[in-house]
Amino acid sequence: MERIQRAKAQGATVHLGGEKYGTQGYWVKPTIITNTHPDMEIVKEEMFGPVAVIIKFEDEENVLKLANDSPYGLAASFFTKDLTRSVQVTNKLQAGTVWVNCVNELYPGVPYGGFKQSGVGRECGQYALDTYVVHILSHRVRNLSGH
Fold first, then answer.
1. Would you call 4 exposed, middle or buried from its count of C-beta atoms within 10 A (0-12, 13-18, 19+)?
2. Among the listed ranges 28-37, 47-56, 101-110, 135-144, which one has the minimum average pLDDT value?
């Protein structure tokens, strides 16, 4: 709620939501924020929850610069009719997962994780199993060796 309030104080417009939901917990109503600029905290910080921040861009080069100008890189999503362009843009985005023409489509056999300061490795698929097995084996070796 504080981030939403600071965004409003900096000139952003809350078009939908922006209010607490319920009386218990830390829930926010689905929120759409516009009239933002790249230096705003609401744009820069990784927010989880139903908060969509809309920022205008001029062209593909500009939107890639805006999207990648962040210490975070968990996921990205965009919509297009041009499949060739979708591959080109996907390869330029610094995100662990990039969805094209959908959002949050996850498959248990495919690794999921972020880049930069997002995520803690890869979850799902063989990567997750490998990490788990290595952790268990190293723990058992330490116990057997008395360390």
1. buried
2. 135-144
Residue type present at position 99? W
Q: Tokens at residue 145, please? A: 């060796």
Question: What's the start-to-end Cα distance of the chain, in Å?
Answer: 46
d(CA 140, CA 46): 37
Parallel, antiparallel, or unpaired: how do β-strands 51-53 and 97-100 relate?
Answer: unpaired
Kindly report the pTM of this predicted structure: 0.70
Q: Which two tokens stand for residue 50?
A: 């139903």
Closest among 112, 134, 108 to 123, alpha carbons compared? 112
pLDDT in tens, 19-72: 999 999 889 999 999 999 999 999 988 777 799 999 888 899 999 999 999 888
What pLDDT is recorded for position 61? 95
Q: Which tokens go with 93?
A: 């985005």
Show the 3-state SS of 8-21: HHCCCEEEECCCEC
Amino acid symbol at 127: Y
How far is it, in rounded angstroms, from Cα 4 to Cα 45? Answer: 12
Q: Are 19 and 29 in contact (CB under 8 A)?
A: yes
